[in-house]
Structures are given as structure tokens and as C-alpha cells.
Amino acid sequence: MTQVLHIVGGGMAGSEAAWQAAEMGVDVIIHEMRPTVGTFAHQTGNLAEMVCSNSFRSDDDEQNAVGLLHWEMRAANGLIMTTADAHRLPAGGALAVDRDPFAETVTAKLRAHPRVTVTDEEVTTLPDDGQWIFATGPLTSPALGEAIRAETGSDALAFFDAIAPIVYADSIDMSKAWMQSRYDKGETEEERTAYLNCPMDRDQYEAFIDALLAADKTEFHEGETAGYFDGCLPIEVMAERGRETLRHGPMKPVGLTNRHAPDVKPHAVVQLRRDNALGTLFNIVGFQTKMKYGAQTDVFRMIPGLENASFARLGGIHRNTFINSPTLLDAQMRLKSKPNIRFAGQITGVEGYVESAAMGLLAGRMAAAEILGRDLPEVPKDSAMGALIHHITGGAEAKTFQPMNVNFGLFRPVDGLKGGRRGRKDRYKAYTDRAKAEWQTWLDQC
């Protein structure tokens, strides 16, 4: 075997794909254009840089689909999950990481691997030969985007993905804010106090909504449309959908008791999550925004406890491009018109760090097996991995295809279990038990 696997893009998906293929014995070249060619969202040339949240979301592998995906990736010797565990921060029941050491470690591990080479060149075409994985993510370069559109013969699908702001911890007024995870969730005191909470009464909330609605927003370029992904809506868009929307979303006041006034129930609560191991930075949870920078500082300083906040990073907004995978990719994630090319990560229409890395894991293994002349068994549909790849390669409705997080709605029902909310706990446990067994069997056969 002398064929090299080329991977374009060194984000979550590309990094995981490279690791899996190299561990199977295949030589890999990662083509990552940064830092030679930068993007407005990235700040370094590191692989697997986290440009939005620092959270991999729930780590509950019995009652949550993304937690199950964590479990499956750990079982498969996933680089992203192993490194995330090594740089874990307290976040209640979630898996949050110290973003800079995380990316630095992923980069160091891949550069040290004897079968991995990293180059900083930009790839702008779809090659006719060789084995390739394109994992360029939501910030695919314009030139490569044009090449993909030319090959697929369809207009690019796009939505806008917003970045939440980060606040310096020492600028937060702790006489108004307090530390507590919702419902005191977590096994340790550190986990139970992983979030910083800023309470609002009714008048403060109403004034905040008014300011959000009136704030200057980023204007879109001609020809662009705001097809937002519902799991990552800017807060002002949520406010436009109804004045109570935020109170039932990221600002819901449930499961929290104000340490400074335990008998006063907040009308709304803004939560911040620790963004680094030192605890010097906090990101505002669920506060993706397309407000202009000046408006952001004015509006966010209306939040009790953030009146004098200093921002390490303000929110931003960027165009996120993905392909219509159900029509373009086969079950092996290969481009039907150019089967020497696979796609992986967010460009395939999965949403989130974990989902992107998971599709990279599968693409890396599939490409390596093809190079090595091996036949991989079909990814079990009842695993989290299988549910996702089945969705993007044919399970989704192509006409209405939109980015998707992993969720139990993608799983086949388990016979004999009660539906509805009351049966949810037993149903989810059955999903995860079945998935773990099938995923482990698949790994044993590979």
C-alpha cells in the first residue's frame, strides 16, 4: 500500500479523520490553509481550533444522544474526545474544554504521528485522482466553494452561524451574580457551581428585549439570505419571534436559586460558562448574535452583573455553507460524481463539534479501509454514528435538508416501549443500550 490519503481542512472532522486513518496504517497529508490563508473567525493556525462555544454539550451517555456520541467516539479511540477529556473544565453535566490547550494538544499529537504530514496550502479544486476527504467546515474558502458548486451543479445551501461573546471574569459584579449549575446538576461541588448566573426582574428583562430589538445589526451582502439553523439562533432573532422566547430558551429562570436573594424568583437568568481552565474567561451561554460591536457592549452591559463587563471577544456572524448530502453522497460518504472524494464534518450538513468529529471519524476509517483493500461492515443504523450518517446520506428529505444535531428522533424506535414524555427515560436508556452494543460489535469487526 503506497496510496496517500489527502484531507482538506484541519478542523474537528479533518483532525479526527487523519488520526483514525493513520492509526489504521495509512499515510495522511492534512492540507490546512491556516495560517497562510486565514479566516475572520479563526485566530490561530492550530488544528481543531474552537471558534464558537467551548462546549461539547451533554456528556450523559444514557439519556442524551450527544453524550452517546461521546461514548462511541471514546470507544473508537477518538482523538477529539480523548483530548477533550484531558482538558475538561467544570460544566455541570456538559463536557466543556479549555479551548487553547485543547487545540494545541490535537495539533501536537497529529504533527508527532509518524504517518501524518501537515501542510499549510490552500486546495481550490476537486482532484480527479487520489483518495481525498474534504472537511473544510462552515468556512470553506470561496475558491473551493466555487469548485464544489461547479461539480455538484447546484446552488450552495447556506445559513448564518453566530459566535457568542466572551467576558473577562474579573469584570463581573459578583454581588449580583452567583455560581450554580441548573438544578445543582453534577457529582462534585465544582460541577454543581459550574455556571455563573445573572438574574433579571421583569422590568430589566423587558428593557433588555427592547434594546435587542432596536440594536444595530450586521447587514447581509446582496444575494445572501438569513436561513438560520434553529439550534444556533442569534438572540435578537429569538426576540423577534416573541418577547417571551428568550425566557423559555437561554434565559429560562428554572432550576436556579439566587444566592443573594433566595426568596426572590428571577424573571429571567443569563448564564455564563467558564471558557478556560484558569477561570478568567466566561462565555455567555446561548448568546450568539449578529449585533454590531458597539451595540453589543451597550446591550450586554444592561445585564445585571455585567454593567462594567470587559469583553475578550464580541459576538460575530458568518456564512456557513454545506452540501445537499442526501443527493450528492453515497453510503460511504463519497461524492457520487467523483467517488475518489469524500466529504466529512459540517459541510455535510451535521451541526456541532461532536457531530463533525464523528463524521470525520467514519470518513477516515472508510477511506483508510478502501486504500487498504478492506471491506468495512455497514455502520449500524441503531448507533449514534449510524443514525447520523444514515440521515445525511439518504435518510433526510433532500428538498428540505438542513443542518442537524444528533438526537433521538433520528433513531429507529424500540418495540414495546411507551411513547410520550412519561416513557422518555426508559426509551432513551433503551436507545443508548442498544447503540452501545451495536457500536462495540461493529468496532470488534473492523
What is the topological layout?
Elements: E1 5-8, H1 12-23, E2 28-31, E3 55-58, H2 65-75, H3 79-86, E4 88-89, E5 94-97, H4 99-112, E6 116-119, E7 131-134, H5 142-152, E8 157-163, E9 166-168, E10 178-179, H6 189-192, E11 195-200, H7 202-214, H8 235-240, E12 268-274, E13 281-284, H9 293-300, E14 311-313, E15 316-322, H10 325-328, E16 334-335, E17 338-343, H11 353-372, H12 384-395, H13 424-445
Parallel strand pairs: 1-2, 1-7, 2-6, 7-17
Antiparallel strand pairs: 3-5, 4-5, 8-15, 9-13, 9-14, 10-11, 11-12, 12-13, 16-17
Helix pairs in contact: 1-11, 2-11, 2-13
The side-by-side strand order for the widest beta sheet comes to 6-2-1-7-17-16
Q: What would you call the structural class?
A: alpha+beta
How many distinct folded domains?
Answer: 2
SSE pattern: EHEEHHEEHEEHEEEHEHHEEHEEHEEHHH
- Mean pLDDT across the residues is 91
CATH superfamily of the largest domain: FAD/NAD(P)-binding domain
Rg from alpha-carbon coordinates:
22 Å
Approximate shape: globular
CATH topology of the largest domain: FAD/NAD(P)-binding domain
What's the CATH C level of the largest domain? Answer: Alpha Beta
> Approximately how much beta-strand content do the residues carry?
15-25%
* Helix content estimate: 25-40%
Provide the CATH architecture of the largest domain: 3-Layer(bba) Sandwich
* Biggest beta sheet summary: 6 strands, mixed
- Report the strand count: 17
Q: Report the uncertain regions.
A: none
First-to-last CA distance: 18 Å
How many alpha or pi helices? 13
